[in-house]
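Example 9 (inverse folding). The structure is encoded as follows.
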């Protein structure tokens, strides 16, 4: 029973060592025996050598977790008594929740979980998924009974890839458990590593809902600004200037227009709308925001083509350089990047597109999207250059360095307000 288990007796297993799992495992590995488990044996080998391909954890930080070990062996995982699941929760091609990684992780846990053990989920889901979709899988595989033989918790991840200021320990953590005693235990466990403090929710469903609306709120706010950008473009007004002026009021929220991708903001709202429709409610605002944001890649491509035509640059057969492929600046994360929407739309115009991104793994980009970024753009070769991601390398180049890749007559389109207004031809 849970009464026999306290924080000092925890042997922790973290399932999934991506952008979320590894930083968490490192923090716990500083203070207690922690096993980082992943089915990707190559990833395990790299981590044992002190290499994190996601660039979330520096080698010295990885080395500081003296009680952290890594394995892809199920028998090694069996020695743990508390498990934290940090696998992805994507959507499918029809924008429906895809719980496959979560179900597979639950099946794995069903093979190793024992009496008195606690399974904590961090993956973003719709309210109710932990107890209605995941726990039954553990019960079926293990033969154990939930809340009698084993217990569950939920503490939604709040990792911000590429952010070296807001990290695991410095972001306040929401916690919850399947019984009041488990809730206290889960909260005490995270309190060992979260210096920013914790917030104990009244139930797992409340914690699940809190997580999914965090990103839904951001998605809707960005959709509003994207729609305003479209309106202001038609009115011939510079969007950034409008936002700067409005931002002089203390309570104006500083959102900016742009592509909305990644593993969270572009995905999580569909988990909430899916659950809402299951209970008979059709969400209006959330889905409208999603439609706006999902359409921004096409809008950008069309604006570029119009500008090229105005400049009498022949579009059919033109060469365009798109700078940046990741879903956000200064990280190699390619998950659900919406830059690919620009590439797809430009392809419909018979435009040849090169992508350049010094942050990405080229083999991963090719495997995931069929896109092979160039090693280095050709000087003087492009009819248009699209600055799609605000990597620090691009900022260091400046407008002069970027324009060197364009032909004498070309269009420079800055989606990220990285360069001064007067240095570019088009802004979102």
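The amino acid assigned to each position is listed next.
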């Amino acid at each position: 029973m849970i009464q026999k288990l306290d924080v000092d007796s925890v042997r922790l297993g973290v399932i999934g060592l991506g952008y979320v799992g590894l930083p968490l495992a490192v923090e716990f590995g500083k203070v207690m025996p922690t096993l980082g488990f992943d089915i990707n044996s190559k990833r395990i080998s790299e981590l044992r050598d002190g290499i994190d391909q996601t660039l979330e954890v520096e080698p010295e930080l990885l080395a500081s977790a003296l009680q952290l070990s890594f394995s892809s062996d199920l028998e090694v995982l069996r020695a743990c008594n508390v498990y934290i699941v940090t696998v992805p929760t994507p959507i499918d091609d029809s924008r429906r929740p895809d719980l496959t990684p979560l179900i597979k992780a639950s099946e794995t846990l069903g093979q190793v979980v024992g009496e008195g053990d606690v399974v904590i989920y961090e993956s973003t889901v719709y309210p109710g998924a932990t107890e209605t979709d995941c726990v039954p899988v553990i019960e079926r595989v293990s033969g154990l009974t939930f809340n009698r033989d084993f217990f569950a918790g939920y503490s939604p991840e709040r990792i911000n890839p590429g952010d070296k200021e807001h990290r695991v320990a410095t972001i306040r953590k929401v916690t919850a458990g399947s019984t009041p005693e488990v809730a206290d235990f889960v909260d005490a466990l995270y309190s060992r590593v979260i210096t920013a403090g914790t917030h104990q929710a009244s139930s797992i469903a409340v914690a699940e809902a809190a997580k999914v609306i965090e990103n839904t709120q951001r998605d809707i706010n960005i959709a509003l600004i994207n729609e305003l950008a479209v309106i202001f473009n038609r009115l011939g007004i510079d969007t950034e200037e409008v936002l700067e002026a409005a931002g002089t009021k203390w309570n104006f929220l500083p959102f900016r227009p742009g592509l909305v991708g990644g593993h969270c903001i572009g995905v999580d709202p569909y988990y909430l709308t899916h659950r809402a429709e299951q209970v008979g409610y059709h969400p209006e605002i959330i889905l409208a925001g999603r439609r706006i944001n999902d359409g921004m890649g096409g809008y950008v491509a069309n604006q570029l083509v119009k500008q090229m035509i105005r400049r009498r640059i022949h579009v059919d057969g033109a060469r365009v350089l798109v700078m940046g492929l990741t879903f956000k600046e200064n990280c190699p994360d390619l998950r659900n990047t919406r830059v690919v929407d620009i590439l797809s739309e430009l392809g419909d115009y018979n435009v040849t597109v090169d992508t350049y991104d010094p942050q990405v793994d080229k083999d991963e980009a090719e495997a995931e999207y069929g896109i092979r970024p160039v090693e280095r753009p050709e000087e003087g070769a492009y009819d248009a250059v699209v600055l799609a991601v605000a990597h620090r390398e691009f900022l260091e180049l400046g407008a002069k360095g970027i324009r060197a890749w364009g032909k004498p007559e070309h269009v420079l389109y800055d989606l990220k307000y990285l360069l001064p207004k007067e240095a570019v031809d088009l802004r979102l």
